Amino acid sequence: MTTEVLQQQSGRIGQPLMKAAPATYSFRILMVNVCFLGRMEKGTDDWLLVDAGLPYSGARIHEQAKRCFVGRPKAIVLTHGHFDHVGALDHLSREWEVPIYAHEKELPYLNGESDYPPADPTVGGGWMARLSPLYPRKGLNLGSRVHPLPADGSVPFMPEWRWIHTPGHTPGHISLFRDSDRVLIAGDAFTTVKQESIWSVWTQHQEMHGPPAYFTIDWRAAGDSVKRLAELNPMMAVTGHGTPMSGEELANQLKRLANGFESETVPKRGRYIYHGRAQQD
Question: Which is an annotated Pfam family here (predicted)?
Fold first, then answer.
């Protein structure tokens, strides 16, 4: 299973639309990916948007969607609510007038109750990490437009997919999995680029890493989530940051990440290093 470039875009802001797997498409804007789930068949409006990118990217996401699908999506599903995954959410949800779904533990950051905890610029290394205190962390207030995902793990309007609670990066982080061909949309549970490094983000050098360290608030839960995803033995993974990874390379790198998470990925010190342990021990 390999990715396929479907459309070329000019410049580095909008990158080519990638077909990661049947009815699964990844579209990168600057440093973050959004996903379109659904078949590009003439006349179909049976599709979903997963995540909503950076602020001010709504017009580009909307333009790409119009090229690929008919009409508006059935819904928008969020892996989590960090600024780079919900930046165009208000614009798109009003434009399309569709429901938004997220894990119940993520809802406080989407209904005006809470802001995200401060970033930790001391972990991960690289300028993306050092600049992280400047990144927006204020929650949204989407009101009645946002709903909890079904408790049974099903994904609205997409019966072939299921959601999996993969906390650590945020309390209500989820990943999506399609059992029929073992395709995984991992969000920020792990990445295929060193997201803390500006150079790696610019070049998109592919290598597997844990969640973006500067925004990860529970390292024990993050490690457990990576292990849970590794146990699924995915054949293809689309991550929130980086390029899709598949096959033996994915299997080997995900297993290595899971087995060495505590010793190689968890920072030795930092703002949240003992947060998960304090809560769970």
Answer: Lactamase_B
